[in-house]
Specification:
By secondary structure, the protein is an alpha/beta fold. Helix content is 27%, strand content 26%.
Length: 262
């Protein structure tokens, strides 16, 4: 009998994907006043995949737990995941994290918090988005696997668990695709092509309010989240210049030299 799946899905609250981020007038933070936040799209895909695993392997999945680290406002992201079908959630509330000041956790700090939480909960499968759309670091999943000393499969486009508890993950590579297999426990990061998250109904949103949400702090887990990096300044990307046509290869080379491309 294979081990039952105790799935943990880390999620993050980010500026909504439909909103174009703006740098504030002081050029030191991203403007968040009056800006809509939502569940990170890659995290949403991870939640959906965990729920699909339970639907296809009803006797194999024991529980699906969401966890988020950040300010108290991160509860919004947890509620979104609970409304999709997760069983319970935990908020690791971090003092000092503030959207209005663009104070956020670094990937290594998040990975350490998750490692301590996973050790505490005894999970054997972690599914998380490959990156958050606010910082695009694409580091937390790999760091977490390293800290746990678990096998990892990144950028998953298909996930399957057989009756013996062997996890097979298909991922896209430059030459096409490859499939990796490993026994539990394992860390999986999700790509956009893995699935399309379900539409959340109003009745599910109401039910989510009754689901259990625990709270912890970094000190409860014995983790230091002090930042190691400092943002000196932020700026908008330069405006793209209009293109132009050339009549010959010689003209093209001349143009490229003029702009310092060659």
């Amino acid at each position: 009998m294979p081990p039952r799946l105790n799935i943990i899905v880390p999620v993050k609250r980010v500026i909504d994907y439909a909103i174009k981020p703006r740098v504030n007038s002081a050029k030191n933070i991203v403007e968040t006043n009056g800006v809509k936040f939502s569940l990170n799209p890659f995290c949403e895909i991870a939640v959906e995949e965990a729920i699909r695993l339970r639907e296809s392997k009803k006797d194999l999945v024991e529980s699906i737990t969401l966890v988020s680290a950040g300010s108290a406002k991160a509860q919004d992201a947890l509620r979104s995941g609970l409304a999709m079908g997760a069983d319970k959630a935990t908020l690791i509330e971090c003092p000092g994290i503030d959207d209005a000041k663009s104070l956020s956790l670094e990937p290594l700090a998040v990975a350490k918090l998750l490692k301590a939480y996973i050790d505490k909960e005894g999970a054997n499968l972690v599914i998380l988005g490959k990156q958050a759309i606010d910082d695009d670091s694409n580091q937390t999943g790999q760091m977490l696997a390293g800290l746990l000393n678990w096998p990892q499969a990144t950028n998953a486009s298909n996930v399957a668990v057989d009756d013996d508890g062997i996890v097979s993950v298909t991922r896209e590579v430059d030459g096409g695709s490859e499939t990796l297999s490993a026994p539990l426990p394992i860390v999986i990061t999700t790509d956009l092509r893995l699935n399309v998250p379900r539409y959340t109904k109003l009745q599910d949103i109401m039910k989510a309010k009754k689901k259990k949400t625990d709270k912890l702090t970094p000190s409860d887990l014995g983790v230091d989240i002090a930042p190691r990096l400092e943002v000196v300044s932020l700026s908008d990307p330069p405006k793209r210049l209009g293109g132009s046509k050339v009549d010959s290869v010689d003209s093209l080379i001349s143009k490229l030299k003029d702009v310092g491309a060659i």
